[in-house]
Specification:
57% helix; alpha+beta; six-stranded mixed barrel; elongated
């Protein structure tokens, strides 16, 4: 029997039991659809996370004082400097050609009073570059200017959470707040950024000139961080090297001595998250692929039933000249058709579910063609593997015993 004739006979046999054939492929459909959906959703989540992280400052790095340097505890031997970050450090970093913007940062937490309302929040001291470095402009009012920083003006910009807690639905621009011993005029309300991935409310803060915070509230010239923006994300590794070398020279840190500063970028955090998502993709894809194994077992069971039901048919075919390999090929093709048919339907279902999920979750749609090819190939292998035993059993039947079978 030619392969074409074997395919024709196999299709006819499956068509006679269409309902059973469709139910048999259900396991393969679910398995392939699960693999494609899981991989697509994890890839979409990965793209969404990357976009969110880059929106927080894709080309920004944060230089931070170490806890010991910040507290004034010595982190050096007799040749090193124990000073934390200073305004002069920020000025030196600003002179690097690779750097576009710099904002010294200092922060504290204090109670803010407005009339009969009060709220405990984070106070951030920054330069006028803070808004553009973080792509965080006021929704109402304006941000403070470099002149405000130079003259240490008592002005501030508040987050939406602080605005809601202290002003409710009243207009905040031009109002005054009492923080510590001083009063500060509100000149702007920042646009809302919502919560971070860790659940922290980014809008629960007040931003003022760092000179004002140092003189009016802290009474010290210390800095906690220096935010540095570079031209592109690709410049970050080089900028990290340049800044580290510059600060080591300024603080007289010898080789082998601990640095009184550390540097982090959004790129570092993004890479860690992407790595975790990659592991989850493999894990979820592996779990979903178990459905393919279950579907293969279902195909084997149905094919064994089919062999039992068609013993007499097999005997007649052998009696009229069909060889064992012809019977083997016929039943193997039936198994492969069931598996590949389930694979095609599973691809359609998986892509459909992933598309609907991306629409409802408002995620970008990422269909992995690699996952589609892998799932389809695996379904074909499952059909061959689990169809081989029933096919061999049919091919080994004794034609005389088969003709006598009732």
């Amino acid at each position: 029997m030619s392969p074409v004739a074997a395919w024709h006979v196999a299709i006819q046999a499956l068509h006679k039991n269409m309902g059973r054939s469709l139910l048999t492929t259900l396991g393969i459909i679910i398995g392939v659809a699960a693999v494609i959906t899981m991989v697509a959703l994890t890839q979409s989540a990965k793209a969404t996370i990357e976009a969110q992280m880059m929106s927080l400052g894709g080309s920004v790095l944060m230089v931070s004082s170490t806890p010991k340097a910040r507290s004034g505890v010595s982190v050096r031997d007799t040749a090193g400097s124990a000073d934390g970050l200073t305004i002069k450090d920020a000025a030196a970093i600003r002179k690097l050609q690779i750097v576009t913007q710099v904002s010294p940062l200092a922060n504290t937490r204090q109670r803010v009073i407005r009339g009969n309302r009060n709220w405990f929040t984070t106070i951030v001291g920054a330069s006028a570059d803070f808004a553009t470095i973080n792509d965080w402009l006021p929704e109402h009012g304006t941000f403070f200017t470099p002149d405000d920083v130079t003259s240490a003006e008592n002005v501030c910009v508040i987050g939406t959470t602080v605005a809601h807690q202290l002003f409710g639905y009243q207009h905040a621009i031009g109002a005054t707040l009492r923080i510590g011993p001083g009063t500060f005029r509100v000149i702007g309300v920042l646009s809302s950024k919502g919560q971070t991935l860790g659940g922290k409310d980014q809008d629960d803060l007040i931003v003022m000139p760092y000179t004002t915070l140092q003189k009016r509230l802290l009474g010290t010239p210390r800095l906690d961080n220096i935010a540095v923006a570079v031209r592109t994300q690709q410049d970050l590794p080089l900028a990290v090297d340049y800044i580290a070398q510059l600060l080591r020279e300024r603080h007289q840190i010898r080789p082998g001595q601990p640095d009184p500063f550390s540097m982090k970028t959004q790129l570092d955090l993004t890479q860690k998250i992407v790595s975790i998502v990659g592991i989850m993709t493999v894990l979820l894809g592996s779990i979903a692929s178990i459905s393919l194994i279950v579907g293969g077992i279902g195909i084997m069971n149905i094919m064994l039933v089919s062999v039992t039901e068609r013993i007499k048919e097999i005997g007649i075919r052998m009696a009229v000249g069909a060889k064992a390999r012809d019977i083997l090929l016929q039943f193997l093709i039936e198994s492969v058709i069931l598996s590949l048919g389930g694979g095609v339907l599973g691809i359609v279902v998986g892509v459909g579910i992933a598309t609907l999920a991306s629409v409802f979750a408002k995620w970008p749609l990422h269909i992995s063609w690699g996952a589609i090819v892998l799932a389809f190939t695996f379904s074909a292998i499952v059909g061959i593997f689990f169809g081989l035993y029933p096919a061999r059993k049919a091919a080994r039947l004794d034609p005389i015993e088969a003709l006598r079978y009732e």
